[in-house]
């Protein structure tokens, strides 16, 4: 892979990470502290770390992790259209699947 291609892919991956972090922050009030995007031939994979709000972490600590997972899955369904559109704008490609889980 040429250095120009690597630089372009690195910049695109960084922009996608930023886009996903901002979308989560808009939705939950807090974005993750770490995000890494990997670009594949037919996929974009974003891994987020440390994304729970203080309230969610309190629920997890109290044994209510399933409630947090349910809420997160609902937020992801709500975010799907906007995040997909933003990824399409960045990549110039159509999003044909959006898979997200915790």
Major β-sheet profile: 2 strands, antiparallel
Strand order of the largest sheet: 1-2
What's the oligomerization state?
A: single chain
Total count of strands? 2
How far apart are the termini? 33 Å
Radius of gyration: 15 Å
Overall structural class, as computed from helix and strand content, comes to mainly alpha
Please report which band the strand proportion falls in: under 5%, 5-15%, 15-25%, 25-35%, 35-45% or over 45%.
5-15%
Mean pLDDT: 92
Low-pLDDT residue spans? none
Order of helices and strands: HEEHH
Report the total helices.
3
> Any idea what the shape is?
elongated
Helix content: 55-70%
Task: Give a verbal description of the structure.
With 102 residues, the chain is mainly alpha-helical. 60% of the residues lie in helices and 12% in strands. It has helices at 3-28, 54-61, 65-91; strands at residues 34-39, 44-49. Strands 1-2 form a two-stranded antiparallel ribbon. Helix 1 crosses helix 3 and helix 2 runs antiparallel to helix 3 (65-91). The chain starts with a helix and ends in an 11-residue tail after the last helix.
């Amino acid at each position: 892979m040429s250095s120009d291609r690597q630089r372009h892919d690195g910049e695109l991956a960084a922009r996608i990470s930023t886009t996903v972090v901002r979308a989560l922050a808009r939705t939950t009030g807090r974005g993750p502290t770490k995000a890494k995007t990997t670009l594949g031939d037919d996929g974009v994979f974003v891994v987020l770390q440390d994304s729970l709000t203080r309230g969610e972490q309190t629920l997890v600590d109290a044994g209510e992790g399933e409630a947090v997972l349910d809420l997160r899955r609902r937020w992801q369904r709500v975010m799907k259209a906007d995040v997909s559109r933003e990824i399409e704008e960045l990549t110039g490609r159509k999003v044909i699947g959006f898979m997200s889980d915790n």
